[in-house]
Specification:
The protein has a 7-stranded mixed beta sheet. A 3-stranded antiparallel beta sheet has the order 3-5-4. Helix 5 crosses helix 6, helix 11 runs parallel beside helix 14 and helix 12 crosses helix 14. It has 4 domains: 65 residues; 190 residues, Vaccinia Virus protein VP39 (Rossmann fold, 3-Layer(aba) Sandwich); 90 residues, Serine Threonine Protein Phosphatase 5, Tetratricopeptide repeat (Alpha Horseshoe), CATH 1.25.40; 68 residues. It is globular, with a radius of gyration of 23 Å. Strand 7, helix 10 and strand 8 form a beta-alpha-beta unit. With 469 residues, it is of the alpha/beta class. Bound molecules: S-adenosylmethionine. S-adenosylmethionine (SAM) binds next to loops.
C-alpha cells in the first residue's frame, strides 16, 4: 500500500508534467484529499497509473485542474500595461487597415480579456471592429464563468465608476452583468497551454499574447515550453505581456524589453521604429516557482520573516505570500504587521470572514488601527453594506487624516449614493493626498494599481462627478 507522502509526491509530479503547475507546499493537503476522494489507498497506484496515461480533456485531469489552479483576477488589473497595449501597440498594429489578434493565455474568468475590450472601445485610437480577442484557460469552470460574464462587486473593485455605468448593468443583488457588446467581443475556449495543438499555435496566429500572472505558477520546464510556443505563434515583431513581477530571465532569449512610461512588455525579434522605446528596465528578479517557503534559492530568498511576505505581496504573488506567512514561527505571525498583511491577503483571496476577524482584532488592539478600519471598510463594501463601510473609512481617516485611499473610498461611496458635494470634496482631497500616500497603504490596498494608476482612477471619478453636476 502506498504511503501518503509517496502518493502526494507522485500526484504533484503528475500535476507539474501535465498541467505545468508546481503545487505550493500549502496544496499538499489538497492533493491528499483528492487522492483519498478518488480511490481507497490500496488502489492509489492503479489510479495514478491511469491518470498518467489519460488523454487531453480527461475528466479526472480537468477536475484536478479546477481544484489546483489559482484564478485570482479582476477588471483593469495592472492598468498601465493594458493602457500601453491599447494606446500604443494596438493602433500601430491596426495601421493600414490591418486587424489585431490578441490571445489572453490563462484568462481565468474573463476579466482581463473584457477589460481590454472595454479600453479598446473607450479609445479614440483603436477600431474595435478590427480587434479579435481570444481567451483560453485550463480551468473549465472559469471558462464557463467567463462566457456568462456576470460578476460580483469584488471583480469590479477598481473599475472606475464611468466604466461601470457604461459597460455593466448593475442588478439589485449588487452583482453586475457585462454589456452584450463587450461580452460578444471575446471568444473563450478551455485549453491547456501545454497540450499539442498545431492549428491553434500556427506560425503568426497572434499579434499580441497576454500571459500575465500565470508564469509564476509554472515549473521552469512548463514556462520554457509555453514561451517557445508563444514565440512561434506570434507574428514577427509581435508582443508579449507578462505580469509586472514576472521575468523571461533564464527562460527565453527571443524577446526584447520595451518600456513605455510605467509599463513594460516584450517584443519578438527586432523592435520596429514606430513603437516608442526607452532602455530596458532591469529584469525583475525572482520567479515564484523558485521561491516556495521550503526551497530557498535566489537573491530574494535572503529576505526573512514577514519581510519576505511583504515582498511577495508587492509582487502580487498572493498565494505564496500566504503560504510563507502561515509557515512563520508564532512570534513572527503575532506581530501586528504580519497580522495586517495576513488580513489583506485574506481579503485579496476573497476570504472575507477571516479578513474581517483579523481586522477586528487589530482595530481593537489599537495598533495599525487606521489600516485595520480601512480594511474592515473594504470587507463591508464587498458585502454590499455601504453604511458600515462608510463608518469604517471615516474612522480610518479620523485616525490618520492623510490616509488618501480612505478619502478615495469615501468619495467613491458618496458618488454612488448620489451625494455629489461630499463626493467632490473627498475625491479632491484624495487626489492631493495620493501623491504622498504611504507605500505601506499602496502595497496593501492598491489592488495592483501604482500611485499613478490610483490618481487616474481618482481623477476619472472626479470628472464623472463634475459631468453629472
Ligand atoms: C492568476 S490567474 C491569471 C488571470 C489573468 N491572466 C490575470 O492576470 O488577471 C492564472 C490562470 O492561469 C490558468 N492556468 C494555469 N495553468 C494553465 C495551463 N497549463 N493552461 C492554461 N491555463 C492555465 C489558471 O487556471 C488561472 O485561471
Amino acid at each position: 500500500m502506498m504511503r501518503p507522502e509517496e502518493g502526494i509526491d507522485r500526484l504533484a509530479a503528475l500535476v507539474e508534467r501535465r498541467l505545468g503547475l508546481v503545487p505550493a507546499s500549502s496544496t499538499k493537503e489538497e492533493l491528499l484529499a483528492f487522492l483519498e476522494e478518488k480511490a481507497p489507498r490500496r488502489q492509489w497506484e492503479a489510479y495514478l497509473d491511469r491518470l498518467e496515461s489519460a488523454g487531453t480533456g480527461d475528466a479526472e485531469l480537468r477536475t484536478l485542474a479546477e481544484r489546483l489552479t489559482v484564478g485570482e483576477t479582476y477588471f483593469f488589473r495592472h492598468l498601465v500595461q493594458l493602457e500601453a497595449l491599447v494606446e500604443q501597440v494596438l493602433p500601430t498594429l491596426q495601421q493600414r487597415g490591418r486587424s489585431a489578434r490578441v490571445l489572453c493565455a490563462g484568462c481565468s474568468t474573463g476579466e482581463e480579456a473584457y477589460s481590454l475590450s472595454i479600453l479598446a472601445r473607450e479609445s479614440a485610437r483603436v477600431d474595435p471592429s478590427r480587434l479579435f480577442i481570444t481567451g483560453v484557460d485550463l480551468n473549465a469552470r472559469s471558462i464557463e464563468r467567463a462566457r456568462r460574464a456576470h460578476y460580483g462587486p469584488w471583480a469590479l473593485r477598481v473599475t472606475p465608476q464611468p466604466f461601470r455605468e457604461r459597460w455593466f448593468q448593475a442588478l439589485p443583488d449588487g452583482t453586475f452583468v457585462l454589456s452584450p457588446e463587450v461580452r460578444d467581443s471575446v471568444f473563450f475556449e478551455e485549453r491547456n497551454l501545454l497540450d499539442e495543438a498545431p492549428d491553434f499555435w500556427a506560425a503568426g496566429a497572434f499579434d499580441v499574447i497576454l500571459f500575465r500572472n500565470v508564469l509564476i505558477y509554472f515549473s521552469p520546464e512548463a514556462a520554457r515550453r509555453s514561451l517557445s510556443r508563444f514565440e512561434q505563434a506570434l507574428t514577427p515583431g509581435g508582443f508579449l505581456f507578462l505580469g509586472p513581477s514576472e521575468t523571461l530571465r533564464g527562460l527565453s532569449e527571443s524577446f526584447e524589453t520595451v518600456q513605455a512610461g510605467d509599463a513594460f512588455y516584450f517584443q519578438r525579434e527586432r523592435v520596429r521604429p514606430d513603437i516608442p522605446r526607452t532602455p530596458p528596465r532591469p529584469s525583475p528578479p525572482l520567479r515564484a516557482a523558485e521561491v516556495t517557503p521550503t526551497t530557498p534559492t535566489g537573491a530574494r530568498n535572503r529576505l526573512k520573516g514577514p519581510e519576505r511576505a511583504w515582498r511577495l505581496l508587492e509582487e502580487e504573488r498572493y498565494a505564496e505570500a500566504r503560504a510563507w506567512l502561515e509557515a512563520l514561527p508564532q512570534h513572527e505571525r503575532e506581530q501586528s504587521l504580519s497580522k495586517l498583511l495576513s488580513a489583506a491577503l485574506h481579503l485579496q483571496s476573497g476570504a472575507f470572514r477571516e479578513a474581517e476577524r483579523l481586522g477586528e482584532a487589530l482595530a481593537e488592539s489599537g495598533v495599525q488601527a487606521a489600516e485595520a478600519h480601512y480594511l474592515l471598510g473594504l470587507c463591508r463594501e464587498q458585502a454590499g453594506d455601504g453604511h458600515h463601510a462608510r463608518a469604517r473609512y471615516e474612522r480610518a481617516v479620523h485616525l490618520e487624516p492623510t490616509f488618501a485611499l480612505g478619502h478615495l473610498r469615501l468619495g467613491m461611496l458618496a458618488r454612488r449614493e448620489g451625494a455629489a458635494t461630499a463626493a467632490r470634496v473627498a475625491l479632491r482631497l484624495a487626489l492631493i493626498l495620493l501623491a504622498h500616500e504611504q507605500p505601506l497603504h499602496l502595497t496593501l490596498f492598491g489592488g495592483g494599481f501604482g500611485r499613478h494608476g490610483l490618481m487616474q482612477v481618482c481623477q476619472r471619478e472626479l470628472w464623472a462627478c463634475l459631468e453629472a453636476a
